[in-house]
């Protein structure tokens, strides 16, 4: 081996997070390509129907978009429906049905063309090509096509032999697909199973013995309980693999709460490390009952920042606790400890600029929301791995984490309402997160500043 085998980020991260849960087979890579401004990666999904490909595609897309990597999913099913109609029965997917076969190829080619167009015209970085791509011939066609445009191809194969999970997936998401709109659910499930059988007939798993040894791929077996990786190149691909290794689909809840009202909140000051106000302390006392009413005896871990107000808020919760420095509030630099009015008087230009582009505005000597997103990346990674978690955090921090789960844009993120004395409960579902909010009846100040309405420029 003459060059780096695996990016160091993967090697260093693995023992911390992965070894306890996964068997890892590493098929060694001899390539190393660094990410640069022209990096273009097509993540090509592989696998039988109902193996979670779309789920994985959506998750990876959200993770990368949240990290400001330009990412887009190209779902071939949508192209198929557009070109050939939504109500195709299982025979359409029979590999012996030549008409169906060429119609499906046509849909794949249309999606591929659009994907390349997106790379070229919109300067995309990661495209996720979501289809079964279940034969070597189809994968070879994709590789050849992408090579012409200097697009790296990384296959992500999902293999699942758990019949009950596949059935569950059919019930959860396939019956509500546009393919089966207005159809009797039993008939739809039967048809979908017949569709899977057709794909099984032609399916060829990624195989290094059969001319696919130099393909870049990650194979996830039984929801990532085993992961095989081959020829992973560069930082971005290794981040994607690491993210995939941490995904699970066990039912769980993620709770968010800001700390109880603090002395600084009462005084209208930002930042600092003040203690709770008397009303904040009451909130801390009331919190355990609310959590218990929601979770019963289920296990939970509580994460706080290293600041006094979150630790004090967690004080009465009888669960394992963990302090994260990464969860400390956005650093307001020279403005730390000031009120918004003081900032406006002392730094009027900064104050104005912040509302012009709040996501990117960096306080003098402090941080921007963008900076906070980057420092929260390990928190997100760990959240994906964990089960029930309660994060007791701060306004800006919880906005960033909430925006990841609820797929909010960078414009909306810094203005999300995360009120004091309110618990937000997120329950991840197949492609979305269900949300409930519980307000505890203890008054607190409102620290939310809406985006000021500026008079529109009518000069031209
Ligand atoms: P199709 O080929 O019909 O589009 P698909 O493989 O894209 O099917 P999804 O639509 O993604 O399947 O299925 C979603 C369901 O898969 C979700 O309910 C999710 O919990 C589950 N799921 C997620 N990851 C996996 C996995 N690695 N293996 C099996 N199921 C998974
Ligand atoms: O006011 C409470 C607080 O947590 C401050 O410490 C922090 O600077 C602020 O909220 C973040 O909110 P915004 O980004 O809207 O100023």
Plain-language structure description:
The protein has a seven-stranded mixed beta sheet with strand order 1-7-6-5-2-4-3, sandwiched between helices. It has a six-stranded mixed beta sheet with strand order 10-9-11-8-12-13, sandwiched between helices. The chain has 16 helices and 13 strands. With 460 residues, it is of the alpha/beta class. Strand 12 and strand 13 (433-439) form a beta hairpin. Residues 1-35 have low confidence and may be disordered. It has helices spanning 8-17, 53-66, 76-84, 98-122, 136-148, 163-174, 185-202, 208-212, 234-246, 263-267, 278-295, 308-314, 340-346, 348-356, 369-385, 395-405; strands at 23-27, 41-46, 71-75, 126-130, 152-159, 216-221, 226-230, 254-258, 301-304, 321-323, 389-393, 422-428, 433-439. The structure holds adenosine-5'-triphosphate and 6-O-phosphono-beta-D-fructofuranose. 6-O-phosphono-beta-D-fructofuranose (F6P) binds at residues 265, 270-271, 329-330, 332, 394-396, 414, 447, 449.
């Amino acid at each position: 081996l003459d060059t780096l085998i695996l990016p160091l980020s993967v090697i260093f991260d693995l023992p911390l997070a992965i070894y306890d849960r996964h068997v890892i087979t590493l098929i060694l890579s001899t390539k190393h390509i660094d990410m640069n401004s022209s990096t273009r990666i097509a993540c090509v999904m592989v696998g039988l129907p109902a193996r979670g490909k779309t789920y994985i595609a959506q998750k990876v897309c959200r993770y990368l978009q949240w990290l400001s990597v330009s990412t887009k999913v190209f779902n071939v099913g949508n192209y198929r429906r557009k070109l050939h109609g939504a109500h195709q029965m299982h025979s359409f997917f029979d590999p012996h049905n030549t008409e169906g076969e060429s119609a499906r190829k046509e849909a794949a080619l249309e999606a591929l063309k659009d994907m390349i167009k997106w790379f070229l015209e919109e300067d995309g970085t990661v495209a996720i090509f979501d289809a079964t791509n279940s034969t070597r011939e189809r994968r070879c066609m994709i590789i050849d096509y992408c090579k012409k445009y200097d697009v790296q191809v990384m296959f992500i194969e999902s293999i699942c032999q758990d019949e009950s999970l596949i059935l569950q997936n059919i019930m959860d998401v396939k019956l509500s697909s546009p393919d089966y709109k207005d159809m009797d659910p039993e008939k739809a499930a039967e048809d979908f199973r017949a569709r899977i059988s057709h794909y099984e007939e032609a399916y060829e798993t990624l195989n290094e013995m059969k001319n696919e040894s130099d393909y870049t791929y990650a194979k996830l077996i039984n929801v990532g309980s085993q992961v095989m990786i081959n020829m992973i190149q560069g930082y971005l691909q290794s981040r994607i693999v690491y993210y995939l290794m941490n995904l699970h689909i066990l039912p769980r809840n993620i709770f968010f709460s800001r700390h109880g009202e603090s002395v600084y909140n009462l005084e209208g000051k930002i930042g600092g490390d003040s203690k709770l106000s008397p009303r904040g302390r009451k909130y801390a006392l009331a919190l355990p009952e609310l959590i218990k009413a929601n979770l019963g005896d289920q296990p939970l871990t509580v994460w706080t920042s290293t600041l006094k107000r979150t630790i004090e808020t967690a004080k009465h919760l009888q669960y394992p606790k963990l302090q994260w420095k990464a969860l400390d509030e956005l650093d307001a630099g020279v403005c730390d400890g000031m009120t918004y009015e003081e900032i406006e008087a002392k730094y009027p230009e900064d104050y104005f600029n912040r509302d012009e582009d709040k996501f990117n505005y960096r306080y003098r000597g402090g941080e921007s929301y963008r900076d906070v997103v980057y420092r929260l990346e390990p928190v997100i990674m760990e959240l994906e791995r964990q089960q029930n978690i309660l994060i007791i955090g701060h306004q800006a921090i919880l906005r960033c984490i909430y925006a990841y789960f609820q797929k909010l844009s960078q414009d909306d993120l810094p203005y999300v309402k995360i009120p004091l004395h309110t618990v937000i409960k997120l329950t991840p579902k197949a492609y979305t997160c269900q949300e409930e909010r519980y307000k505890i009846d203890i008054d607190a100040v409102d620290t939310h500043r809406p985006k000021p309405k500026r008079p529109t420029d009518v000069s031209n």
